[in-house]
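Translate sequence into structure tokens.
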Amino acid sequence: GGAWGWLERAGAQDGEEGKRKLGAMAEMMQTMKELAEEAVVPKDVKQLRACLKCHMVKHIKQFEKDGCENCGENFEREACEDYCSVNFTGVAAIMYPDDSWVARWLRKQNLKPGCYALEVYGQSPVDD
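Result follows.
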């Protein structure tokens, strides 16, 4: 019953093959749920910033607390101003980068699940 009832009914209709398919589908859905839970999403719609390197979009406090999950940068308040921009356009939510055509199109398939700016304006400081 419940939200998974249709999946159980589908598995019951095909006997052993249906049970195998049901198990595989349940495993896939669990994996997708775990990936979605790992996604980095903005906690608020105000004070958003985009990483100048990978374009991940998060609230400024998230960047200050966690840095950038893709770039490995840890930001203090001042560094956040150097490595992030308030000037960006568009946002794509990419929850399954490995399987997403949008992630491939944006060349973000190797990054963490999360929200990404389509374009970011600004320059990151040159590494010494």
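Note: Residues 15-38 form the longest helix (24 residues).
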